[in-house]
Amino acid sequence: MAKFKTRSQAPIFRLILILLLLTAFGRAQAGQSDEKQKAAGEGARATQPNPQPAAQAAPEEQKISPQEAEKLFRSVDEILRFASKDTLFPIKREVKRRLVSRDEVEAYVTKHNSEDEDAKRLRRAELVLKKFGLLPRDFDLGKFLVVLLKEQVAGYYDPKTRTVNLLDWLGADQQKPVLAHELTHALQDQSFNLEKYMKPADADLARKKEITAQDIENDELSTTRQAVVEGQAMVVLVDYMLEPMGLSLKDSPQVVQALKDGMLVGTPDAVQFRNAPIYMKEALTFPYRYGIDFIADLVIKGGKDKAFAELFRNPPKTTRQIMEPQTYLAGERLEPMNVPDFREVFKSYERFDVGSVGEFDVAVLVDQYAGAQISNKLYPHWRGGYYYAVRSKGDPTAPLGLLYASRWSSLEKASNFAAIYASALGKRYLHVHDVAEEGKEPAIPTDALEQLTGRRAWLTEDGPVVIDVQGDTVVVTESLDQTTTDNLEKEIFGAVAVAAK
Questions:
Q1: How far is it, in rounded angstroms, from Cα 410 to Cα 428?
Q2: Band of residue 338 on the pLDDT scale cut at 50, 70, 90
Q3: Is the dihedral of CA 273, 278, 284, 286 positive or negative?
Q4: Among candidates 10, 2, 28, which has minimal Cα distance to 234?
Q5: Measured between alpha carbons, how far is 431 from 427 in angstroms, rounded to an integer?
Q6: Lowest-pLDDT range of 184-188, 287-291, 437-441
Q7: Average of pLDDT values for 203-230?
Q8: Angle, vertex CA 333, rays to CA 344 and CA 260, nearest 5
């Protein structure tokens, strides 16, 4: 779906939650029930700081002393060796290190969020997410990200300069777990070039004039690769923090679960994150929460080479493969969805944005519309999806027009999803009225729907909404004229019918 990442995959965007992770890890350690682990944990806590203060800004910020800075710089090589042993990535060269101030980090964040192209992409992402009802109408995505990044900033590795940036306002011991995470990125970069890996040349739909089914499939590549990169780094972070207890991630599944749970809760002072919409929390934590499970599963079933180096040679392609590792291990390949001739069908409109709606997007969509329990049961039945957003030519003030097509494992699951989507219309629009079809019985109210089959239409303050279910495919159009909707249904369902023969 609409992404809010920057053009350069700025490393600071990948690290906004490290302090949240450390706090969650502290909760996970506290929840250990085994007496031996408790005793070992007490000994470790005597030498390891409580992670929570790392997320609390003192009224008058203190700078670390030159002696602490020297200690921090020396620890880089020691932790790099640990990360290399844990991942099997070789150390090919020394990692440069630099001490930065809070002002420098905030300037870096602001710069990457204000570049013209990035600002345009953020605006497109914001409007599409609002169209789907995933963000409130009055939400300012750009402002939110800047404040959040300043609230949660931690040390980070910059692949452009090949430098690990350390913070001059946190003590050496407090930054060591962050270093384990960041130096994993340095090792990934040395062997596989992170900049190139994170920006697949064929995944930027904004630059393509003609959009194909393959382009839609490639749209999730950056998201899945981010989950690989962050999942691997999270495994190393956990292993590093458990090592003083003689444990590792494989020995402590309860620690990992508590860690993931804590990520969505946030620290008491993380006001911006705690008050964020569901979609923002889920999207920001996806690479960490699902990434660590994905890597852990591969370590257990395929060994370290399978879980580390092999993922750079044969990366996952969809968020479905990240969320359900067995589909990656089995080499599952979903058939690309049929797509209409967008330029021809939308000749009265200008393209605004286009992208995939993957299994992760659907999981959050259903969670927001119907709750997590229903989402967890339904999203594994996703089998493909995309959106195409447009503006009426010559009318920049017109509501955003939307095509959303999705495919499911069966007619039943497609009908379930269509009913959930329809039931949420009243939450997304101020006025929703059924469009009666001649000769048909009155439609069941949207809030009483359990399944929706066939075609149904509504009128809203932003124009018509049509949901049509045929076979395993759901087609939704919003704020489009009748002729365009009819042509889209003919092309998509015609293609579905041919494929079914």
A1: 27
A2: confident
A3: positive
A4: 28
A5: 10
A6: 437-441
A7: 88
A8: 105
More confident of the two residues 420 and 18: 420
CA 266 to each of CA 16, 21, 73, 416: distance values in angstroms, whole numbers, following the listed order: 12, 8, 29, 33
Q: Which of 156, 325, 329 is nearest to 233 (CA)?
A: 156
Distance CA 408, CA 386 (A): 13
| All CATH 3.40.1000 domain ranges in the chain, comma separated | 342-500
Q: Tell me the per-residue pLDDT of 438-456, one tens digit each, with 9 for 90 and over.
A: 545 556 666 657 889 999 9
Q: How many beta carbons lie within 10 A of that of residue 60, not counting itself?
A: 5
Report the candidate in 473, 478, 476, 466 with the shortest Cα–Cα distance to residue 494: 473
Tell me the residue type at 190. Answer: Q
Nearest CA-CA partner of 473 in 500, 447, 435, 446: 500
Mention every residue, 6+ apart, whose C-beta is less than 8 A from residue 26: 50, 51, 52
Six token digits for residue 262 = 């804590």
Cα(360)–Cα(392) distance, integer angstroms: 30
Please provide the CATH number assigned to the domain covering 342-500.
3.40.1000
pLDDT in tens, 374-411: 999 999 999 999 999 999 998 888 999 999 999 999 99
Q: Give the Cα separation of 95 and 91 in Å (integer).
A: 9
Evaluated on CA atoms 236, 239, 243, 248, the torsion sign reads negative
Q: In what order do the strands lie in the sheet with 96-100?
A: 96-100, 163-167, 156-158
pTM above 0.85, yes or no: yes
Tokens 């370590």 sit at which residue?
A: 299
CA distance readout (Å), 325 to 60, 249, 380, 382, 410 = 46, 17, 12, 15, 22
